[in-house]
Amino acid sequence: MNERILELFQESPEAYVSGEEISRRLNVSRTAIWKHIEELRAAGYEFEAAPRKGYRLVSKPDRWQVSKLLSGLKTKVLGQKVHVYGAVDSTQTIAHALVASGAPEGTIVLAEEQTAGRGRMGRAWHSPPGKGIWMSMVLTPRVPVYFMPQLTLLSAVALCRSIQKVCQVEIGIKWPNDLLIKGKKVSGILLESSGEDERLKYVIAGIGISVNLKTEDYPEELRNIATSLAIESGQEISREHLVQAFLHEFEDLYALYMDKGFAPIRLLWEALSVTLKRPIRTYAPSGPIEGIADSLDDSGALTVITANGEKVKIYSGDIELK
Ligand code: BTN
Q1: Half-sphere exposure of 282 (CA within 13 A, CB side)
Q2: What is the pTM of this model?
Q3: Which of 34, 278, 296, 302 pairs with 63 at a CA distance of 20 to 30 A?
Q4: Which fold, 66-272?
Q5: In whole angstroms, what is the distance from residue 170 CA to residue 27 CA?
Q6: Does 279-321 carry CATH code 2.30.30.100?
Q7: Using CA atoms, how far apart are residues 265 and 156, in angstroms rounded to an integer?
Q8: What are phi and psi of 28, to 5 degrees?
């Protein structure tokens, strides 16, 4: 009933909705409405009550609304099981534990906040409460372990395309899977896997999207290198819609990949890349490599052409755009 009351307020945001109207449309008594409004207030929703006008929803806590997420979700597998948490150390840790207790492919874990969000290469991932999509997804692709880089690139394509669909921003992919808007990072992907007999047993795809963070939500040291969708688009973005869009994109691309292999994904990645044909630098164990990022190979490695015309492949790590 609380959810239905909220839906009524969302039909005409800013407006007063009278107790009489709520009572008529939801077929409940005025006393019951008052009780539900009090429950919603206790859960962080702020209502203004005015005599003869009714109630107005002034602000709502940004909490995951699972019913909103599930309504309109047309995927067959992804997101069919959703686990939502408040503060967790990392959704990755929870997803690994869920797999151990039998969670099926497509299970997703969402948290409001991560206290020890994990990034690639041992870095931390800034995950403040209520402002982002901190999500882990269970996949069980029956492919060899060395296909992992391809799945990483596929995830970046799905994420980039879903953000393009939901927000008016110019976004591109920096190899392998950082999403950048005007050179600043807005989203990152961390794939963790477990293999058996050289095949993947399962993969946990960790997706971090800085959705509604404001500049002051970032620590000083991140302000020049990170941004959010709200900062760049100038408007708040619905986290539920974005997760839906991502799950649809991912499911379609994943099916395409299982059917036709990496070639079509590679083309899509290349079209979204802000890396190719640009000068880059990377730090290999043998020392720094500089050159022009040329293309992706069949495994997902980045081919770089150095100043003396040598072709060097980069299989993992990070690159800097120069
Ligand atoms: C990167 O370094 O770019 C990858 C960042 C991945 C962050 C996401 S947030 C949800 C999931 N849980 C984590 O602890 N990390 C990933």
Answers
A1: 24
A2: 0.83
A3: 34
A4: BirA Bifunctional Protein; domain 2 (3.30.930)
A5: 46
A6: yes
A7: 10
A8: -130, 160
How far is residue 18 CA from its own chain's centroid?
37
Intrachain domains 2-59 and 66-272 with the same fold: no
Query: Atom 7, ligand 1: which residue's CA is nearest?
Result: 208
Cβ count near 239 (within 10 Å): 26
Ligand 1 and 91: CB distance under 6 A: yes
**From 134, 178, 187, mutation site for ligand 1 pocket: most ligand atoms within 8 A of C-beta:** 134
Binding-site residues for biotin sit at 114, 118-120, 185
Mean pLDDT of 112-135: 95
Q: Which residues are annotated as a binding site?
A: 114, 118-120, 185
Question: CA neighbours within 13 Å on the CB side: how many for 187?
Answer: 32
Mutate to test the pocket of ligand 1, among 118, 177, 185 (most ligand atoms within 8 A of CB): 118
Report the first-to-last Cα separation within the chain, whole angstroms: 55
Cis previous bond, 176, omega within 30: yes
Instruction: Return the CATH number of the domain spanning residue range 2-59.
Output: 1.10.10.10
User: With 70 as the cut, is the pLDDT of residue 44 above it?
Assistant: no
Residue 197 — very low, low, confident or very high, per pLDDT cuts 50/70/90?
A: confident
Which residue's CA lies nearest to atom 11 of ligand 1?
206
Using the mean position of ligand 1's atoms as its centre, give its distance from the Cα of residue 119 in Å.
5
What local confidence, expressed as pLDDT, does residue 205 receive?
98
Read off the amino acid at residue 259: D
Residue 322 to residue 320: CA distance in whole angstroms: 6
Domain ranges for the chain: 2-59, 66-272, 279-321
Closest by CA position to 22, among listed 7, 37, 11, 33: 33
Backbone angles phi, psi at 47, to 5 degrees: -120, 145
